[in-house]
Amino acid sequence: MRGQHASVSYKDTNWRIINRLWPYLKTHCHRIGLALMCLIGAKIASVGLPFILKHIIDALDQHSNTHSSITLPLGLLLAYGVTRFSSVLFGELRDTLFGRVTERAMHHIGLHVFEHLHRLDLAFHLDRQTGGLSRDIERGTNGISFLLRFMVFNIVPTLLEIGLVVALLWWQYHFIFAGIVLSAVTLYIGFSVFTTEWRTRFLREVNQAESQSSTRAVDSLLNHETVKLFTNEHFECQRYDAELTRWEHARRQNRLSLFALNGGQALIIAAALTTALIIAGKHVAAGTMSLGDFVLINSFMIQIFMPLNFLGFVYREVKGSLASIEKMLELLAITPRISDAPHAPDLHVTHGDIQFDHVSFQYTADRDILRQVSFRVPAKQKVAIVGASGAGKSTLFKLLFRFYDVTQGEIRIDDQPIHRVNLHSLRRAIGVIPQDTVLFNTSIWENIRYGRVDATDSAVQEAIRLAHLDQFIEQLPNGRNTLVGERGLKLSGGEKQRVAIARALLKKPPSLIFDEATSSLDSHSEQVILQALQEMAHEQTTLVIAHRLSTVIDADHIIVLAKGQIVEQGTHRSLLQQHGQYHKLWTLQQHTRHDSKPALP
Ligand code: ATP
Q1: Which residues are within 8 A (CB) of 179 and not within 5 positions of it... i.e. 6 or more apart?
Q2: Is the CB of 127 under 6 A from ligand 1?
Q3: CA 103 / ligand 1 centre spacing (Å)
Q4: I want to staple 502 with a disulfide (CB 3.0 to 4.6 A). Which of 30, 184, 467, 570 is the partner?
C-alpha cells in the first residue's frame, strides 16, 4: 500500500518547537553557560548604574545646598564609567559567544532539511514549488537565528531585570513605585500578547503572499523559453502583478496592525512614566526624597521600559520566527512514501536478472496505469519495451528504480524483491538514460563526472569517447569547461542526450535502462552510439524503452505494451510473423521513414 505524505497539520505548540531545536544546541552547553554568565554580569552592571548616578547627584546636590566648595565625587564618577563600560563589554562578549552557537544550529538544521528534501520521493518533488520552498527554508533558518538570539538573551533577561528593579524600588522607596512598574509591565505584556496574537494572521498572510509571488516569479523565469514561444510576457506580468498586489495588501494590513500595537505600547509606557515622576516630584518638593532619588526613579523607569519596548518587538518577531520555523519543520514532518525497510540489506547483484511479477500500478487511485505486467530480463540480455505513447513504458523504469512502489505484485533483481533491499544499493545498481536530461548549471565535464563523482579523469574521458562527445567538446572554445546553462539549455537535445549517455556509462552499473535515450539524435549519431552501446551491453542487463522500433530490432526479447498490459512479446522476427500490433507499428514507421524498407535481421 502506498502511503500518503503525512498531512501537514503540524500543531506543535511554540514550546515544542523550541524543544525540537534543543538537540541542535545542546552540543554547545559550555558556550551557552559562559554567554549566560556574561548576560548576568551585564544585567548587574546596568541595574547598578542608576544607583551610582543617584549618589553622584546627591553628592553634588549636598554641596550646592550647603554652599560649601564642591569636591568632585571622583571615585563615584569613575565607578560610573567603569560600570557602563562593563555592561556594554559583557553584552558584546555574550553576543560573540552565542553567535557561534546560533550559526552552528542554523548550519545543522539547514543541512538536515536539505538531506530530508533529497530523501523525499519523486511524487513530493513533482508537487512542490521550488520558489516557495526555498523561501520557506530561508525564512525558517533566519527565524532560528532570531529566536535563539532574542528569546534567550532578551525576553528572559528583561523579565529578570524587571523583577530586580521592582524589588529594589519596593525596598528602597515607596511600594507605589513598584506597584506602578508592575501594573504597567503587566498591562504592557497583556496588551502586547493579545495584539500580537491578533496580528499573527496578517503576518502569516504576508509570508504566504511572499512565498506565492516568489514561486510565481521562479516558475515563470524557469519557463522563460515557453513564455517567449507563446509571446506570453504580458500574461506572465499580469499574473505576477496579481501576486504582488496580494502581497502589498497583506503588507499594508500588517503595517496598520503594527501601528495599533506600537501606539498602544507607547501610551502605556508614557502614562506609567508620567505617573511615577509626578509622585516622585511631589516627594522631592515635600523634602521626603532627594534629587538623586528623583533621577534614580526616572532612570529605572526608562531602563525598564526601553527593553520592554524592545520586548514588544521581540515577542512579535519571535512569534513570526516561530511561524517560519513551524513551516520549515512541517517539511521535516513529511514522511517519504518510499523509504528503506528497517535494516534493509544491500542488493547483491550476482547476474543482473530482472523480473517483473504480476505488477500493477496506479499513480492515483482512480486510474490503472499498469495491469498484471509480468516479464523477465535475463542477465546480460537486452529486452525492449515498445508501445504507444502513454502506454506505461517509462512507468516501468520508475518502478524498477523505486521512484514509486508497485500497487500489486513484485519486482525482483537476482531474486531479491527490490522493496526489501536498501534504496541506495538498488539505485547504485541501475543506470538510467532518461527521456529528458536535465543538467546542472556547471561545465560539461562536471556534468559527466556526476555519473561517478570519484571517477578518474581518464575514466571520464573514456565515457566521453564512447558517447561520441569528444569531437563536439574539442570544437568548443572553452572545451570541457564550457558551461551548459541552467538545466543544460545551452546544449542541443542530442548533445544533452549524449551527456546523459556518458554519465550512465561512467556509472558502470550492472543494469542499464534506456528510456528513449537516442530519440533526439540524428540517424547517423544514433547508429554510431547504438553500436558502442551494443558492445558494452554484452556486459550488462539492458532494458530499452523505445518509440523507434528500428533501434531495438537486435533485442533478445521485445515486449509490446498497450494501455498498461502486455499484448505481444517475442523477437523482432517472431513478432513480425504474428501480424499483430507490432507488425502494424513497424509497417507504419517504415512508411513514415520512406528511406528504409522493412528489415528482417
Ligand atoms: P511516452 O512514450 O509518451 O513516454 P510512456 O508509455 O512512457 O509514454 P508513461 O510515462 O509510463 O508513458 O505514463 C503512463 C501514464 O501515466 C500516462 O498516461 C501519464 O499521463 C501517467 N502519468 C505519468 N506520470 C504520472 C504522475 N506522476 N502522476 C499521474 N499520472 C502520471
Answers
A1: none
A2: no
A3: 44
A4: 467
What is 255-285 written as a DSSP string?
A: HHHHHHHHHHHHHHHHHHHHHHHHHHHHHHH
Mean pLDDT of 86-97: 88
Q: Ligand 1, closest atom to CA 404?
A: 27
Contacts of 319 (CB under 8 A, 6+ apart): 196, 197, 200, 203
CA distance 529 to 467: 6
- CA angle 27/28/32 to nearest 5° reads 145
* Residue with CA nearest ligand 1 atom 1: 389
Residue nearest to ligand 1 atom 10, measured at CA: 394
For ligand 1, is residue 451 a contact (CB within 6 Å)?
Answer: no
Could you tell me how far CA 121 lies from the centroid of its own chain?
15
| Model confidence at 406: pLDDT above 80 | yes
Q: Is the CB of 389 under 6 A from ligand 1?
A: yes
Q: Tell me how crowded residue 273 is: count the other CB atoms within 10 A of its CB.
A: 19
The Cα–Cα gap between 331 and 20 comes to 14
pLDDT at 152: 66
Q: Which grid cell is 279?
A: 509622585
Residues 6+ positions from 280 with CB-CB distance below 8 Å = 177, 289, 293, 294, 297, 298
Q: In one letter, which amino acid is 493?
A: G
434 lines ligand 1 (CB under 6 A): no
**What are the counts of helices (DSSP H) followed by strands (DSSP E) for the chain?**
19, 10
How many whole angstroms separate alpha carbon 584 and alpha carbon 576?
A: 9
Place of cell 545551452: 490
- How far is the CA of 212 from the CAs of 79, 245, 285, 318, in angstroms? 56, 12, 62, 23
* pTM as predicted: 0.70
Nearest to 251 by CA among 316, 206, 215: 206
Asked whether the predicted pLDDT for residue 298 surpasses 60, the reply is yes
Looking at per-residue pLDDT, the higher value among 184 and 28 belongs to 184
Burial degree of 463 (CB within 10 A; 0-12, 13-18, 19+) = buried
Q: What is the pLDDT of residues 245-276, one digit of tens each?
A: 999 999 999 999 989 988 998 899 889 989 99
Q: What's the N-to-C CA distance of the chain in angstroms?
A: 44
For residue 423, is pLDDT > 70?
Answer: yes
Least confident of 47-51, 88-92, 595-599: 595-599
pLDDT reading at 75 higher than 60: yes
Binding site membership of 564 for ligand 1 (Cβ less than 6 Å): no
